Amino acid sequence: MADILTDEAGGTMLGVAYHYTPEVLEELAAHGLRPRPDTPPQMLRDALRELYKYEIKVLKGRLLRKEFPKGEYAGRVIELRRKYPLLSIPMEYWLQR
Backbone phi, then psi, for 2, in 5-degree steps? Predict the structure, then answer.
């Protein structure tokens, strides 16, 4: 849920306050992300996606350096993807209703 914040007279829009579910906040914190009430979900999703892309690049580099057999790559990608379940959940479910 998101609330529109207005001034005392109720006229001037000051911003939006987002109310994230406790589960979403926990998942975000696991990646070092601690949103403020005015942090939009899209900004958080973009940050998560960038972290995931970085980890995929690191994993690909390790494969190219032959740190593990090529046959293990797909399993490692799946394991990495499981660390980012919020990327599979529509953002509207990130907020309390």
Answer: -125, 135
pTM of the model: 0.81
Looking at residue 14, what DSSP letter applies? E
The DSSP element (H or E) to which 53 belongs, if any, is helix 41-64
Domain total for the chain? 1
Give the 3-state secondary structure percentages of the chain, helix then strand then coil, rounded to 5: 55, 15, 35
Which domain range does residue 23 map to?
2-93
> pLDDT tens digits for 46-56?
999 999 999 99
Pick from 12, 6, 13, 86: nearest CA to 49: 86
DSSP letter (8 states) at residue 92: G
